[in-house]
Amino acid sequence: MATSRYLPAGAEAEFEPGSRGRVLRNSLGIRLVRDIKLAESQRLGIAQTQAIDLFSDTHRFTQVDVCNLHRLWLAPVYPWAGEFRGVNLGKGGFQFAAAAQVPRLMAEFERDVLGRLTPCLPARQPDVANALAIVHAELILIHPFREGNGRLARLLALLMGLQAGLPPLNFSSLDGNGKQRYIAAIHAAVARDYQPLSEIFLRAIKQTWKTHSSSSR
After folding, report:
1. Global pTM?
2. Spatial CA neighbour of 73 closest among 208, 56, 65
3. Which residues make beta-bridge pairs with 90?
4. Which of 127, 172, 187, 198 has the CB geometry, 3.0–4.6 Å to 133, for a possible disulfide?
5. Which residues contact 212 (CB under 8 A, 6 or more apart)?
6. Overall average pLDDT of the 180-198 stretch
């Protein structure tokens, strides 16, 4: 059973009044799920455009960059944007890292993962896919923020892909029929088996180039 230090507290643990416990307390006063999803989506598009201009092809990403990207995206929506979560989170019976461990794990993520795999230099597609998979999986497993971890991890993958000379990544293979494969690949990464997720990212890279080539004709 969780002790009091792990119990939800503060703004990130609260729901918007009138939302029936379905929408986190937000700066926009939004109470409907569809409206908060729309606000987050619109802000993500803006943040992506801004982020592309912020980082060079030779930039080595840090945990501060990860926090700043989250803040760049969600600061207009949530007051705790860019701050490590203080609540424990799980999804579908799967528990992410305990909140108390997030600062230590993010420091290790910066040193052992981002420090080794960024900047993501141009290379063979399987090698780029493997780098993206490792960074993505480790960030997802830490789940450093109260909301938006998956989409933030995709944004970081997109920025890494640009460093490697790719067009903006098409993530459609991670959704729809590919969602269950994606979830299984994240679970496999718990044991540091990144191959399933690497194959998913390789498929995304190939789809990205296919779409890019078609639109360039």
Report:
1. 0.93
2. 65
3. 95
4. 198
5. 167
6. 97
